[in-house]
Write a structure and sequence with these properties.
The chain is an alpha+beta fold and about 180 residues long. Helix content is about 40%, strand content about 20%. The chain has one domain: Endonuclease I-creI, CATH 3.10.28. The protein is built from six helices and six strands. The N and C termini lie far apart (about 70 Å).
Length: about 180
């Protein structure tokens, strides 16, 4: 399908500028990525039981962004842009998801992007908390009860509308008993 240009007044036609017709070189893609994550992305830290760990709990940071399958080409562009992550179907909400879970990859490839091109909404507070948790994990604080308690204090302030599988207070009580 093609659009026949119609001039309305001198210099104004019904044809959109190149940036709106799919020319990736004509847009500021890093800013687009941040805006896309602002609407569709998630920065989360899961904490779940893991008996094999000294503290009994595993901390897993994750960044993801979802899209309906018929528009998933943008996820492939995001995968190419960051040079990491996986794309998978999410049967829970019938979307396709790009996701990164590796702490090292998050620290080296994803977090630097959001430090340079921050999110403009209140979600930026979650990004900053997410980065703080990843920094603490890089320092291995999550492997000790005291450090994990501090991480939980940060995580509980993230994604206030989300649900948590394990109650933070229960985890903290258990970790406090380990310290005693």
């Amino acid at each position: 399908m093609s659009v026949t240009p119609t001039t309305y007044v001198e210099g104004v036609t019904n044809l959109p500028p190149a940036q709106y017709v799919g020319s990736r070189s004509a847009i500021d893609f890093p800013s687009y990525v941040s805006g896309y994550f602002d609407g569709e992305g998630c920065f989360t830290v899961s904490i779940s039981p893991r008996a094999s760990l000294k503290v009994g709990w595993e901390v897993r940071p994750s960044v993801s962004v979802s899209q309906n399958e018929d528009r998933s080409q943008v996820l492939h562009q995001i995968l190419e842009y960051f040079g990491c992550g996986t794309i998978r179907s999410d049967s829970g909400d019938l979307t396709v998801k790009w996701e990164v879970r590796s702490l090292q990859t998050l620290q080296e490839r994803v977090i630097p992007h959001f430090l340079t091109w921050p999110i403009l909404s209140a979600k930026q507070a979650d990004v900053e908390r997410f980065i703080a948790v990843c920094d603490r994990m890089e320092q291995r604080e999550h492997l000790h009860p005291e450090g994990l308690i501090e991480i939980i204090a940060i995580v509980r302030r993230m994604n206030p509308s989300g649900t948590r599988r394990f109650d933070p207070d229960t985890i903290i009580d258990q970790l406090s008993e380990m310290k005693a």
